Amino acid sequence: MPITRRKLLGTVGAAAYAAMFASPGQASVSPSAAGQRLEGLACNMESWWTDLPFMQRFEQAAAHGFTAIEFWNHSVDDRDMDAVAELCRRLGLDVVQFTGWGGPSLADPANHEKFADSIRYAVELAHKLDAPMFTVVGHQQIEDLGQEECLSNLGKALERVAAILEDGEKTLILEPFNPVDHQGHFLNGSADALAICRHIDSPFIKINWDLYHMQLSEGNLVANMRSGLDQIAYVQVADVPGRHQPGSGELNYEFIFKELQGMGYKGPVGLECWPDQNGEQQAIADIVALRR
């Protein structure tokens, strides 16, 4: 039977707990320090502990001090969402968000009916998981359609589901990509996503503001976040290059975290990053150090 972080601490003690998860040459983090500094951070179950089966990654997240998680596709590999919901309740993990729609492209109106049906199901699933929001992408370029028509059709698809979201009181977060390592998409950076969301003007249709994508699309991270704050429901982080944990690359995440707090952002921050060389313990130490 999986053990919770609280049970583990009560059994082995704090010092032994920290030693259990420290690898040679890596910094260790005490559970109390990790728990304090990891509060408000959602560990991504697709990019952390990838050598383990999906469900075991949740156990690792709880044992290492996380209290929130996110994940992608709810239907891939026959994932059992009832089992996920029960496991998260048992481990004391909050599901912050998951991917409610990952394609096909919403630039094609022929996909809008299926999209609406999928959003109805995503709202139901969000209630089952007690998740406040879910991500939508589906902005692959369509041959023979120009940028403006693609954006217009995407906006129409989102407008179509606004009432579904409002009735279900769950938030759809639109995630732009970047043109560097996510080629073939028409929604990159913040400008077009902001225009769409501000036009729809629904409290339940906002933006998943992924700073990795934003850096590769437009840079000027803090100023752009500040100007788009009214439409940001969720922030994801990863460093550049490599999409590893904050503190592993060229971005000044200590400054970014402080500025984000200073802006009044109170939502969770998603760790959609791949720990460098699969060193999860070092990744946690790096993140803790940045949030002192």
Average pLDDT taken over every residue? 90
Query: What is the fold-level CATH name, i.e. the topology?
Result: TIM Barrel
- Classify the helix fraction into a percent range: 40-55%
Helix/strand-derived category reads: alpha/beta
| Contiguous helical run count | 12
Radius of gyration: 19 Å
CATH-level-2 architecture: Alpha-Beta Barrel
Reported for the largest beta sheet, the result is: 8 strands, parallel, barrel
Question: How many DSSP E strands?
Answer: 8
Proportion of residues in extended strands: 5-15%
CATH top level is Alpha Beta
- Regions with pLDDT < 50 over 5+ consecutive residues? 1-29
Succession of helices and strands:
HHHEHEHEHEHEHEHHEHEH
Query: What's the overall geometry?
Result: globular
Strand order in the sheet with the most strands: 1-2-3-4-5-6-7-8
